[in-house]
Amino acid sequence: MKGVAGIRTEEQSGIIYTAFSYFLWGILPIYWKWLDHVPADEILANRIFWSFWFMIVFLIVIKKFPEFWKMIKGMMKTKKKLAALATASLLISLNWFIYIWAVNTDQMVEASLGYYINPLVSVLLGVFILREKMTKAQVISFVLAAAGVLVLTASYGRFPWIAVGLAVSFGLYGLAKKLIKVDSDIGLTLETMATAPFALIYLIYLSSQGNISLFHLSAGTDWLLIAGGAVTAVPLLYFAKGAQRIPLYMVGFLQYIAPTLTLILGVFFYGEPFTQTHLVAFAFIWSALTIFSVSRMKRVKRRTKAQEKCA
């Protein structure tokens, strides 16, 4: 058994790894901004293709490739898991595309909003798809968040589809992942494997049309497009390493690091507008997240105490 000091050390390292993963996700827009001269669809195709090969090499290095191969064989026999894999792959690809496009068209503020409301959208999906019950705190949180979205809709004169698209696609992706249940490194390899052939076909098509940037602009652009595979995988690997060492409610609090950094980058570094209307809308959403996070933390703590009494 681990002593108290050992548990604390493990939890501290878990906080560092998890916070670092969200920090990397939060500053990721800087990387995509370096590629804003490349169309978002080509960035996405490169990101999928090179992520797959990076993960294959990574699995070989950490000696998990046999486990990955075994998982593929098992999934080929289960149509439900194959469907879940295909769905997860399409959803994460859609999520990546919306995010890259939003960053490179100067809409990072709205993109950050998407990841703020994602936890609440996930709860809503759980209610409608998994028949889960909403607590009073969750109902209040959802109403406040909906009010924030409505304020933005009235201000823009259009529905904030980037924010909602990011939140819904990632929420549905999480649901699809529940049916696969594999380690995050193998999961990412499987997901990119499912879409890598389509990414390659699209890159070949762009090349045949003379519209491809890869190997046609500059060495810097080539390296950025290829390294997008590692940039995609590294935060996920740190997250997997950290999240398993800390309580779920702590992961919930740390997840707001990423959209907060993205919001700061958009407003203070890239000069995107943040009006009084934005402030009102975000105030509604931040209030919703505070109520949601505090209630979830209390619920997890009560459940943990109850389990300790029964043990």
TrEMBL record:
Keyword Acetylation attributed: no
Protein localization: Cell membrane
Alphabetized UniProt keyword annotations: Cell membrane, Membrane, Transmembrane, Transmembrane helix, Transport
A GO CC annotation given for this chain: plasma membrane
Annotated SUPFAM superfamilies: Multidrug resistance efflux transporter EmrE
Top-rank taxon: Bacteria
Membrane topology, record value: Multi-pass membrane protein
All residue ranges annotated as the EamA domain in the record: 13-153
Family (UniProt): Belongs to the EamA transporter family.
Protein name: EamA family transporter RarD
